Amino acid sequence: MAIDRDTIEHSAHLARIDISSWSDAELASLTEKLQRVVGYVEQLSQIDTEGVPPSIHPVEIGERLREDLAVATPGRDAILRNAPSHDGETFLVPQVVGGD
Amino acid sequence: MSEWQAVIGLEIHAQLATESKIFSAAPTAFGAEANTQVNELCAGHPGSLPVLNRRAVELAVRAGFALDCDVQALSIFDRKNYFYPDLPKGYQISQLNYPICLGGHVDYDVDGQPQRTRLERIHMEEDAGKSQHEGEDPHSHIDLNRAGTPLIEIVTHPEIHTPEAAAAFFRAVREVLVCVGANDGRLAEGSLRCDANVSVRPAGSEVLNTRTEIKNLNSFRFVRDAVRHEIDRQIALIESGGSVVQQTRLWDETRNETRVMRTKEGEADYRYFPDPDLPPVLLDAAWLESVRASLPELPAARRARYRADYELSAADAAAIVDRSGFATVFEAAIAAGCAPRQAAIWVNGELASAINDELLAWRDSDNVFVSSRGVEIDGPSLAALQGLVDDDTVSIGTARRVLRRMIESGLSAAAVVDADGLRQVDDSGQIEAAVRAVIEANPDEVAAFRGGRKQLIGFFIGQVMRATKGRAKPDTVRRLVIEALAGDAG
Q1: pLDDT of B318-337, one tens digit each?
Q2: What's the pLDDT tens digit per position in B344-361?
Q3: Nearest residue to B327 (alpha-carbon basis) of B343, B338, B308
């Protein structure tokens, strides 16, 4: 997989990392480094997997299920206390409309 | 103007009727104060780990079997990654490549015409929280009570073609989900909502054109109106030279229009991958079979059975199946010896009218109708009442009054008849005396009858019934009135 400038910008957007102030040299350096990371992982594609069943999940045991019992929550105050901003009832975030 | 065909696919989000959330023990009760049903997992705290709710899986499986799906012995939860403030983890746990159900279909009627819509899949996922924005407020307010609520998403093939069919499909799905206990059916509380994907194409064409998605329709009427409006909007747009843009739209029921929520630029990049915190869901064949075996008879099958076995009309069968408790009481009355046709007349007639008049209400826990004073009316009590009609103890007209008295008094049908002296009189001597008295008291009518006004027979019968307080057997009264009028003339 080739990492280019578009891949970097798309990935940065998905991770909400602002790279608008980065210089071309910095972006070129990052592109090259990420290309090396991806290349390292791509070594795996050299393994012959002919006839090996696909591994669909990293964990091979089955799910342990929980009984459907509701338990009291820590309470609103405790939950809100960890937020940077709240009004005592809801979390407050900058105005959002739409989004992706 | 050319002919257009609409292509509609629906995605129904149904909340699974559990006590606790899909991956944690926080409660799911509706209407709680903001952020009071939130624990560390719902709030996305680092280090908290999801554990799947057994009941949620069971309810998803029940829904799957009831919708004729191929329920999967293996399914996998994936992370769907995106940033939104009502999704504190930064990903929604859903199922992409290995959903819990594949295939399936729903049969339903549109204007009396049977239709089938095939399902693509049903997957399980968690709901997000709720964000609210108000006017000038520079903040959005986040309530995470709904975060982690268990949902199934039912996805159809894009093969619905009219707004009416879309609404009828949604209604049929709700009926099935409620019947098997998977969902509470409360549209107004958001526990069942529908997204509609709509595109149009020239009639006869097989292409799938650019579609728009209308989000969060939570009533049958909204589905119908929003889809109808969106079809018209797209046709008008194309015919005026424009083209449909892939968008997410919202239905504004007060202005009766859809409007843009957001325009999708290219496919969203959700970077799905298997959630390493949740091992694959492996369902045992024997357990699946036991769930399937525990499903109740579905409403459509029950309506068909009533029509076939009991020769009820489609309307009578639907009236019984669609109303809480009616089928239970109807079948119990038959089991207690009441003829099916009579049982249908009782439940759809007098029972329905007593419920309309708020004299009775269904109490699910005991399978009976109950009055405000605790009087219970069930299948056997209706069968006993009909039994009194069958053996000529009371006329059908009297029996209807007896039911009301049973509800008032709590007495059995037979006890009401005895207490109120309603037993039908079939003693010819007693009725003959009443007939004679009526004839003697109405010489003008007798003369008119004999002069040819034969319709006066009804007047005489009515007078005799009144004189006997409705207890005389109508057949006998009629026979004796005719005999008396003829005999006296001779």
Answers
A1: 999 988 899 999 999 999 99
A2: 999 999 999 999 999 999
A3: B343
Quick check: A59 contacting B, CB < 8 Å? yes
Contacts of A71 in chain B (CB under 8 A): 20, 25-27, 39
Please choose, from the candidates A84, A56, A86, the residue with its C-alpha nearest in 3D space to the C-alpha of residue B143. Answer: A86
Q: Are residues B369 and B454 in the same domain?
A: no
Q: Give domain status of residue B292, yes or no.
A: no
Q: Which domain holds residue A34?
A: 5-45
Establish if A21 belongs to a structural domain. yes
Confirm whether B293 is domain-assigned.
no
Distance between CA atoms of residues B172 and B115, nearest Å = 11
Asked if B56's CB is within 8 angstroms of A74's CB, the reply is no
Report pTM: 0.83
Tally of CB atoms within 10 A around A82: 12
Domain boundary among B225, B254, B287: B287
Q: Do A70 and B28 touch (CB under 8 A)?
A: yes
DSSP state of B344: H
**Interface mutation target, options A10, A13, A17, A57, chain B, most CBs of B under 10 Å:** A57
User: How many domains does the structure of chain A reveal?
Assistant: 1
Residues of B in contact with A17 (CB under 8 A): none
Query: Containing domain of residue B182, as a range?
Result: 4-287
